[in-house]
Amino acid sequence: MITTSEKMAVILTENGNVPFGAVFTGRLVAHVSGYHVARMIAVANGRDESTIQWIELNLYATDSGKFICQRVSMQVGEIPTYEGKACDNKAEVIQFFGSGWLARELFVEAGLKS
Question: Residue 53, SS3?
Answer without folding.
Answer: strand
